[in-house]
Amino acid sequence: MKFKIGDKVCFLNEKGEGTITTIINKTTVGVTIEEDFIIPYAISELVSVNNDTDHIPSAQKAIVNTSVEETRRSTVETKKILPQKEKEGIYIAFSPENINDITYSDFNVWLINATNYKILFTYSLFQNGSYITIETGTIKENASLLLETINRKKLHDYSTFKIDILFFDEKPYSPQPPITELIKLKPVKLYKENAFAVNDFIPDKALVIDVCSFDNYEEKINLQPQTDLSKILFRKQTYSETSKKSKPHINNGPAYEMEIDLHIEELLDNYKGMSNAEIIQVQLKHFQQALDKAINEHYRKLIIIHGVGNGRLKHEVRTILSSYKNLQYYDASYSKYGFGATEILIH
To answer: Could you give the C-alpha distances from 127 to 44, 66, 159, 266, in angstroms and in order?
Structure first.
């Protein structure tokens, strides 16, 4: 059922009634009760007092007026996930409001918990050099949550998201490490019809992005890429022993400084289906190539942008750097890179 401002409603799960005075988002309205208090309510928990039937209003017909402030809400619709073919994990999905006219459609943003754990989450948006918290809350195991609906005219403001996840359960469980992941979205992808596909998580066709494949996450934390890393360390030890003295720099101009971004979306056009362990191997390979180039061509400075995440990539990068005797490294400029980069000086 479609509600509008001025409709009188009563509450499905408690006594009382009120009048709808604001449309907050797709699934939530503001209800003014006695003494002029405005309380946010999920549409699914309201019944029109003018309706003779007791069916629950549909959340899918509400009007959405999206802004950062309006997306802060206390309740949103949760849908149980059907048994999925996808890997167990955490996903974020973007589904068009109107799949038949994507060019003019707004887009729903879903957070999907395809694990057997309950999760606490924070969903933040990067704007003007800092993060704005859009939504926080909990999601039950194997369930999805509608986070917000983005107005298509504001898509250019939605290029970088941050997802923070904590796993828990009410019964005894094996603790899992927390997740902090940056999701970079190119809005142009949302205007390609073939970007949206049927999935096992939500009823709508959607662009589903892997935040963390759960069955590989423990591997990512516990599995050292020992074979490749040991080869790298051995090769660097050999290099250090055979090159005790570094050659002087040709000059100290900015042309002899290099910067490389190790975010996987900057390295590969398509990394869907790759495990976290495979991704980190690709990142380390690119890092090693950049470092070799910087040393061999006598660069004086190398900036490695590894991001914050859970710290795994930064740890591996610095493990490799610690094997060199002719390098100094430390956190890069906070004002420019935040906590997500390492600066290397080559002697």
So the answer is: 32, 16, 9, 20
| pLDDT at residue 37, rounded to an integer | 66
Q: Which residues contact 4 (CB under 8 A, 6 or more apart)?
A: 20, 23, 63
Residue 74, classified by CB atoms within 10 Å of its CB into exposed (0-12), middle (13-18) or buried (19+), is: exposed
H runs (alpha helix) in the chain: 214-222, 226-242, 264-267, 276-296, 312-321, 334-337
Residue of 264, 107, 70, 67 whose CA lies nearest to 188: 107
Spatial strand order of the sheet with 107-114 comes to 78-80, 143-150, 107-114, 89-96, 207-213
Same domain, 92 and 161: yes
**Per-residue pLDDT, 304:** 93
DSSP-derived secondary structure for 142-206:
TEEEEEEEE-GGGGGG-SEEEEEEEEE-SS-------EEEEEE--GGGGG-GGG-B--SSSSS-B
User: What is the per-residue pLDDT across 54-90, written as a single tens digit (0 to 9) for each?
Assistant: 443 333 333 334 333 343 333 344 555 544 456 788 9
Domain that holds residue 73: 69-213
Same domain, 244 and 310: yes
